[in-house]
Design brief:
Layout (H helix, E strand, L loop, with lengths): L3 E9 L8 E7 L6 H11 L4 E4 L11 E9 L5 E2 L3 H12 L2 H6 L3 E5 L5 E6 L5 E6 L4 E2 L2 H15 L5 E6 L7 E6 L22 E7 L7 E6 L9 E2 L6 H12 L7 E5 L5 E8 L4 E6 L1 E10 L1
Parallel strand pairs: 2-3, 4-6, 11-12, 13-15
Antiparallel strand pairs: 1-2, 1-18, 3-4, 4-5, 6-7, 7-8, 8-17, 9-10, 10-11, 12-13, 13-14, 15-16, 16-17
Amino acid sequence: MSSTSPFALVSVFTSKRFGGNPAAVAFVDVSLPLEYLGGLSANFNQPMLCCVSPTSLPSDDNKIVVRNIRFVVSNGKEVPICGHGTLAAAKALFEQPEVVASEAHTIHFKNPNGDTLKAVKLEDGFIEIELPSSVPGVLSDEEKTKLKTFVDKAFGRAVVINDIKTGGKVYEPYVLYELDEKERLAASAIDAKALLGNGYMVNIFTSASSNTDEIFVSRMFSPSMLSDPGEDHVCGSAHGVMAPYWYTKRGIPPSHEVKAKQVSKRGGDLRIVWEKEAGRVRLRGQSVVLATGNLEL
């Protein structure tokens, strides 16, 4: 006998229907096999499928909803943490009738690794999510030289790189490149496939912003995880590395809010707070629900 489960399509870190990063959110049994969840993700054909348990776990506070969550990419691979997926799941869950009736203001998502991904409802349609932060790691000059060859190939030209860092202990598969602002990151054509084989799953490109509205801009490429062209419209977890990097570089006091922009084709706007001592980064963004419906399971 078939059953149905609600789903939603959500664009996050944006107030525009066709901006930001889209994700599908399905309220399904998160213990289902990855093969099945991967099939759902492929059918939704969104950058991420967020599988949220349809019922809540016990909570000590009736204003805090606790749910299990899994993140599955459309190619069937699973990742433990997805910033934009967490925001999309929070937006969809905050609009579920039982959550609206409870007047809950906070959601604790539990991932399979035992991490708690926190989402809090703010004013003006903003939701704040909290992710681990990671102080970027140092690379040898030899490693930097090797990585630059991949970057130059991806950009199709010799690129001025101010610094290269690893993602640190939390985000080991990540590498961060600070480009000179004159490289015009937003306007650059980047061949993500040229980055394959450099030893890192996630490639973060960032530069200072001359726009007074934000401190820095960025783009993220993961050709091994994402379908062609391999770019993530807005990557929340990348800011778990960029926040410590830019706060330290600019001497920004921890707990002070700054603005950042992801300058992909769809674009995304983020408000960021780095909690240095706690090792966390808080990302604040708006979201738009594009569609809702029911899945036949």
